[in-house]
Amino acid sequence: xxxxxxxxxxxxxxxxxxxxxxxxxxxxxxxxxxxxxxxxxxxxxxxxxxxxxxxxxxxxxxxxxxxxxxxxxxxxxxxxxxxxxxxxxxxxxxxxxxxxxxxxxxxxxxxxxxxxxxxxxxxxxxxxxxxxxxxxxxxxxxxxxxxxxxxxxxxxxxxxxxxxxxxxxxxxxxxxxxxxxxxxxxxxxxxxxxxxxxxxxxxxxxx
Length: 207
Known about the structure:
207 residues, single chain, mainly alpha, elongated, 10 helices
């Protein structure tokens, strides 16, 4: 990857440099090298800006958002994803929009902004459905399940079950596992809520 970057730099190929930096940043993020991943993506972003490449800018902003999200910098995450969304809309990249909304929704969830998280993830799910992108649907339904588990526990199980159905139909093992775990947790939570309500009712009847 670095050799490709050097070759493109030597040839004064800005687009090639930007693409190579983007790939390098992806590898660095996956290996946990977040400072270098951020630096590579920021260099790529600047090159795409110099070239006027809005698609490249949107992708770079989205991946920068993921780096900041994985390091817990959620204030920066929201700004990056918002910029990415605007650019994706300007080039009519609906899949890019869906991915960005999905990541933004989970950032909102972690920041305890549950209402916005529900709305954002629902928008992502609608786009994935329109596009027929089933993996995105399964992932987003699992994400919605996580949000509902906190904000509307009675709705979480249904999200996980729909996610499981889609994931099983396409052998998406990770999303299957997430959905099964969510269903189990929802059932445990449901039984706990039922027991609490039952105890409360019995106490009320004794007074």
